[in-house]
Each structure stands twice: as C-alpha cells, then as structure tokens.
Amino acid sequence: MKKLLITLLLAVLGWESASACTNLIVGKKASADGSVMSTYNCDGFGFSGSLSYSPGGHHEPGELIAIHGWGPPHEGQYVKQVDYTYNVVGLMNEKQVTIVETTFDGRLELVNRDGLLDYFSLMHLALQRCSTAREAIKCMAELVEEYGYNSSGETLTICDPNEAWIMEIIGKGPDRKGAVWVALRIPDDCICAHANLSRIRQIPLGKTSINSKNLKKINKPEVDCVYAYDVISFAREKGFFSGKDEDFSFRDAYCPIDFENVRYADARVWSFFRHHYSHEEMDKYLPYINGDFDVCDHLPLWIKPDKPLSMRDLQQDMRDHFEGTPLDMTSDMTAGPWGMPIRPLPMHFKDSDSLAYFRERPIACQQSGFTMTCQMRSWLPNDVGGVTWFNCDDANMVAYVPLYCCITQVPDCFRQENNPRAEFSDKSAFWMNNWVANMVYPRYSMMIGDLRKAQNELEDYYFADQEEVLEAIKDMMPGDRQQYLNRKSIAYADKMMQRWDQLAKFLIVRYNDQIVRRVDENGQFTRWGHDTPGYDQQFIDAIGKSTGDRYLLKEVIDRRER
C-alpha cells in the first residue's frame, strides 16, 4: 500500500495568501563579503507570522504528497514524492537554496483554478528537492507542466551560494494546464528587486538562452535565460502581443502597467535602487513613479550599485519608508503629530468633497507577518554558510535574528503553535513585536529612538558573534556542528524575546500619559522630572491652515487687529 505524506504547507507556516510583499536581491560580487543575499517582507493582514520547518530524508517508492495550499480544495489529488528531500527551514534549505516571492496578479483571466499547485506549494516542493537555483527553476517548470498551476502572476527570487535568479510565472487560464514563464540570471555585480509588479520585459533570445524543451541544458554555466517554449506564442494567441519576437515584453503582455501598480509596487524598487546609486540618476525615473509613462515606462531590471552592500545595509533597506525622497512618508501632515511613517488602510480615500486620494506603500509596513534577510556563502560549509535573519512583524520595528539553515529545532517564539492569530501571547515573537510596535507607531518620532537602541544592541551582538560561531565550529564533526547551531539559533531568539519584553515595559513607563520620563546616562529613570515634547513642527504648521484662528492666543489676534 502506498504511503501518503501530507504536506500541510499553510499550517506549517501560519500563512494566508499575501499579495503585497517585497524582495531585494544582491549578487555575490555586489555584496561586501561575496555572499548572495535576498530578502522577503511577507505582508498581509489576517495571519500571524511564524517559521516553517520541513525535515529531509529518504522516502519509500510510491510515496505521495497530498497538497493543501490556499487555492481551491484538491481532495484526493497528490504529487509523487522523490527519493530524497532536503531539510528546509523557513524558505532556505540545507544546501543554502532560497526561494522567496512577490505576487503581481497580472491578467486574472489566466488563473486556472483546476491547477493543483499554488505558488507556495511550488516553492516548497522545489526547496525540498533541489540543491541549486538552476535545479529549482527546472523543478518548478516540470511540476507546473505535470500538475498545473492555480495562482495568479508571481515573481520568484531563486538563489544559491553562487547565483541569483528572477523568475516570473503566470497561468494559461481555465482548462489550460501548465504556465508561461521566464527566468533570468541576475549579473553577479548587480542588485535587483521586485514588489508586486512584473519586472521582466524583453527576453534575450540569444545563444545563452534556452526554452523549456531544452531544460536538460540548464546547468551549462553560459545559460543565463530560461523560458517556457510558448511564452511568446501564447501571448500572440491570446491577443496580448503582435510584434516581432525580439520586441516581446513579458511584463507588457502579462501584467500591463497603470499608475496604481507602479506607484504601489515599483516605487519600492526605485527607493531601494536610490539607496545604492546616484540620486540624480534615479530621480530621472520619477515621471514613471508619478504615472507619466510617455516620459518613461520602466525601471532598469537591475543596476550595479555604487559600492558593495553588507547584510546590515540590506536590513536597513527593508525598513524603508521613502525617507529622504520626494515620497518621504514622514515629511508632511499626513504623518500626524509625531512623524509616523505608517498609514491606515484602505489605500484609497475620499474627502468630504468626494475628491479621491491615495496613500504611499513603502517597503516596511505594519501588516507584515514576518520578515527575513537571507545570506548564502559559498566559501563555508552549507550548514553554517546559509543564514536566515528572521523575525515576525514589521521589519522596521524588529531585530533580525540569525538562524542557520541546518537547524532541526525551530525556536519556541517562532513556532506556529506559539503564534496564535487572535490571542496575545508573551511566548509569541509576533505578538511581542506587535506589542512594542503598536506603542511606538502613534508617537513615532518621540519613541523610535528607544526602539532603535534595543534593535541595534541586539543586532550588534548577533553580528559580532558570527565570527565566534565560525571559530567554534571549525573543528567540529557535522553532527556536533548541527547541535551547536541549533543551540545558538535558539539562544539568539530567546535573547531577542527577553530584550523586547524589557523594551515593552520600559516604553509604557517612560511615555505614560503623553509625557517623556527622563532617564540618566545608564538608561535608568530619574526619580523626578519629565519632558512634554509637543507636536512635530510640520504638524504644528498645518494646524493653523486647518483650524484658522480657533487656537490662536488672544494676544496674537489682538496684535494682528492693531
């Protein structure tokens, strides 16, 4: 009798479909230490973030996997298991292969609800089965061809210790199995990003490109582009494209742009690029960000940064709210009395005269379920070379905790059962981080300094400890290394939870009743004394424009009348 292996993909991750995420990508020659790096803010209300774990091992002939994604139910439908699967922690496996995503939706008429695999099931299966990024691309292409694809348009980041790829995929509509897709290797000396808008335009149809009929050639090192054999002909068939093959644009065919998807999505890519390239050059793309597509209709897919990026640079990039740009979310009265970079949903709103407005959508946002920055290092053994810096909730408001790709024990605070959706728990990283974040949000400029102090304290410690870890495991056997790295990862997470508990209690005392209690040089509360900080100046300046003379002192009115 065949053994059935059940993959509870969503239950393991504590996930619901989140169509508003961000990936930043760094090639190994664009990073300060030679590592490949990628990131993921998984943004979507309605779920509490947690860390998944899938053990690897050998499997019996005939084993099947029942797929339970968030798409339509597929009772009694299965995927064939392979002989051997890899250990997967979060979205990185024991070979340091990492796959993260953002959803671009695109042409919704191309969703095939009868397909078996949603994008996350596809990612997870590839992580279990593949030892390189190229293998993962081949695996996913073959899986959707055999079992069908039921999600809307998706952009995937696929990395290993040597290469970074970007892959875009979309279905073929009802009653059409499979998908159309394209994957490009990101140049080693470049950075790339995507954030809920298709990013691949022209497909290089040269000698270094192969189509899906030649997937056996994917491991040839000169291959830097792989695509579905019918990606262009299918677009012609559907009336999405009618030009020459060399002029074909995947984005324009399968995800036509408008002001909203550019401003809410590609603006995040633009801001990331602007951190690491000439501001003057990147600001030439502002007409595109502002919806003037006659002047400019795209961003570069990737750029060569002005200097190599460190992991800490990338973590700071994940905390971005367009600060210092024309889209800065802290620089006008919509930021409220204390410069808050957070905005309430919905994305659109109307004033009393029925004029419609929108709000900005930055990289960091309050609705993140979890955030991760992933580092893959080719010069180290896999078990210590792959590190996922992870935490639950808003990247701007948390400390990234390093977790090694070989671990077999998820730290308690990141376990799914300890992160309930609708019940506060001080054992939950999600709820402890939300406790602090939701105290800081309303009085942001007043309180963020205390959060930054705790955040930097933890991350300084974690980064400083990495060299000691490498020294400690140098002469260990693999099994001993794994147990040591298990203990280290758990200790890092415990340290974060203890510090955030201390921070939450400190904040409620220091900022009680709209004052700021004074502290000494050691951070201890003084017995007496407090400050009354008032409003940010930009908000004060807006008060008179909004309220007229209502709050003017009488002496000011009298002086004006004289």
What does it look like?
- The protein is an alpha+beta fold and 562 residues long.
- Among the domains are: 4-320, no CATH class; 526-561, no CATH class.
- It is built from 15 helices and 25 strands.
- The longest helix has 33 residues, at 478-510.
- The radius of gyration is 25 Å and the shape is globular.
Task: Please give a handful of descriptors for the protein shown.
single chain; 562 residues; seven-stranded antiparallel β-sheet; six-stranded mixed β-sheet; 15 helices; 20% strand
Task: Explain the layout of strands and helices.
Layout: E1 4-7, H1 9-13, E2 23-26, E3 36-43, E4 53-54, E5 57-58, E6 64-67, E7 78-80, E8 84-85, E9 88-89, E10 92-93, E11 98-105, H2 119-129, H3 133-147, E12 153-159, E13 164-171, E14 179-185, E15 191-194, E16 209-211, E17 225-227, H4 231-238, H5 250-254, H6 259-275, H7 279-282, H8 286-289, E18 302-303, H9 311-317, E19 348-350, E20 356-358, E21 368-376, H10 382-385, E22 386-392, E23 401-404, H11 429-440, H12 444-473, H13 478-510, E24 516-519, E25 525-531, H14 537-547, H15 554-561
